[in-house]
Amino acid sequence: MPAPNDPRPTPPQPKAPEASPTSRWSPRAMLARWTGWVPIRSLGKRHRKRILQHLLALGERDRYLRFGYPARDEQIEKYVGGLDLVRDEVLGIFNRRLQLIAVAHLAYAPAPQIKGRPAMAEFGVSVATSARGKGFGGRLFERASLHARNRGIDTLFIHALSENAPMLKIARNAGATVERDGGESEAWLRLPPDSVSSHVDEALERHMAEWDFQFKRHMRTVGDFLDGVAEVKSRIRKVRDRTDDPGSKR
């Protein structure tokens, strides 16, 4: 992530998309939205270890695309250790085994931001190999955009290698303006102002994701208990079989 005082070009100012609360809250729109819902959870300090495990599990190619260089383990450890999990927003997707399979980092420049430029936040994302092709990167981008919008951010910024086609596709699909400069590209997405519905949307997303996480944790606890009971039964059965076997008494 570039430092707050790094010289960066002023982003182009495309027309912000207009809100359409009526169509957004119509039964058809709500059904389409929640049918394909993906639980995205805000990550805090207690998740730092899981974030590190997720990033360390990335292959060389994925590390190169995520950070713009072939990051070594110690560099990733330094990056995770330096995450400001209070100022920034880090979002994650957990699978049924509560493994972190996708992580997005929405980095805010420390206040005050660059004078004369719109308030910006930078977006970065990584998805585990086993979770590719499910649209998780795009969903994380949508959620990050919503969060930034509700914090009064005007522009979402992406700095990526030009060969990082998945990332640039996510940006283009969201309507971002993408500018390429040799091996690197920058994408700028102008965000609409926040509204009552945008805050309600984020609150619903947050509470439903928390409920989903707690449900998965409960089911894992139940599963571990049942596995333990099955193991005890198996051991009792083996002991009983040895006791009943006449040959074992010789």
Which structural traits does this protein have?
250 residues, 18% strand, seven-stranded mixed β-sheet, globular, single chain, alpha+beta
How would you describe this protein?
The chain has 250 residues and is α+β, with helices and mostly antiparallel strands. The protein is built from 8 helices and 7 strands; from the N terminus they run ααβαααβββαβαββα. The chain has helices at residues 21-24, 27-35, 48-56, 60-67, 73-81, 136-150, 165-173, 196-244, and strands at 41-43, 89-94, 100-108, 120-127, 155-161, 177-181, 184-190. It is globular, with a radius of gyration of 23 Å. Residues 1-7 and 14-23 have low confidence and may be disordered.
Question: Largest sheet, described in full?
Answer: 7 strands, mixed
Structural class: alpha+beta
Helix amount: 40-55%
Q: How are strands sequenced across the largest beta sheet?
A: 1-2-3-4-5-7-6
- Choose one word for the global shape: globular
Number of E strands: 7
Mean pLDDT: 79
Low-confidence parts, pLDDT < 50 over ≥5 residues?
1-7, 14-23
CA-CA gap between termini: 73 Å
For the CA atoms, what is the radius of gyration? Answer: 23 Å
Q: With helices defined by DSSP (H or I, 4 residues minimum), what is the helix count? A: 8
Order of helices and strands: HHEHHHEEEHEHEEH
Strand content: 15-25%
Summarize the SSE layout with pairings.
Elements: H1 21-24, H2 27-35, E1 41-43, H3 48-56, H4 60-67, H5 73-81, E2 89-94, E3 100-108, E4 120-127, H6 136-150, E5 155-161, H7 165-173, E6 177-181, E7 184-190, H8 196-244
Helix pairs in contact: 3-5, 6-8
